[in-house]
Amino acid sequence: MSDQFTLAVAKGRILNESLPLLAAAGIRPSEDPQKSRRLILETNVPGVRLMVIRSADVPTFVQFGAADLGIVGKDVLMEHDGEDLYEMLDLGIARCRLMVAEPSTLAATDDPAQWRRLRIATKYVHTTRRHFAAKGIQTEVIKLYGSMELAPLAGLADRIVDLVDTGNTLRANGLVEVEKITDISARLIANRAALKMRHQAVQELVNKLAAAVASAAGPGE
Ligand code: PRP
What we know:
Blueprint: E1 5-10, H1 13-24, E2 40-42, E3 48-53, H2 58-63, E4 69-73, H3 74-79, E5 85-90, E6 96-103, H4 104-107, E7 117-122, H5 125-134, E8 138-143, H6 150-154, E9 159-164, H7 168-172, E10 175-184, E11 186-191, H8 192-197, H9 199-217
Parallel strand pairs: 1-3, 1-4, 7-8, 7-9
Antiparallel strand pairs: 2-3, 4-11, 5-11, 6-9, 6-10
This protein binds 1-O-pyrophosphono-5-O-phosphono-alpha-D-ribofuranose (PRP).
């Protein structure tokens, strides 16, 4: 059947904010994904299934065709070096920004225009290297898997690259934003083969989600 597909959704904030958009597109999981321990959920649409997985794994499932479509943050997509992935739609949800941050004490005298060599702790190793290489700034990037804010406090690195939303986590740890790398939001991605084989089903979903995104944004946006 041409309208069968599997959609992999990053669990957490992206899943929570995706569910209303999917509902507006006519797709509702048959059980509550926030409560269920099932990893693959059927939906009210026969043949359409949801996978709820860790965000860093969404591009991998879609790249290898184990999921036809995915919903994942732009931060994860930028960090994933894979082919056969197409970004179909900016869903406008789970918005935040990828920032360089440092202790406020350092920021008091720091001038980003003078940066030549930086030591940075982050889980966004590739994105960080790319960003600074494009500016001709040398970096020593230390890979962490979470709680990047701890690195300057513990003397591991002077600066971090991390997602910032409200800024509360930075403030609570005496850090300030010093440079924006990019704005982030969740994206709908598709596998190249699925785009060809299930073109109509994918395009229909893209159209419905685009309408849901536009109506969630409201007039004037
Ligand atoms: C993210 C990010 C920051 C925090 C920013 O962490 O890594 O630590 O949220 O949000 P704020 O600006 O509103 O304080 P998350 O809670 O997603 O967990 P993670 O460290 O596992 O990424």
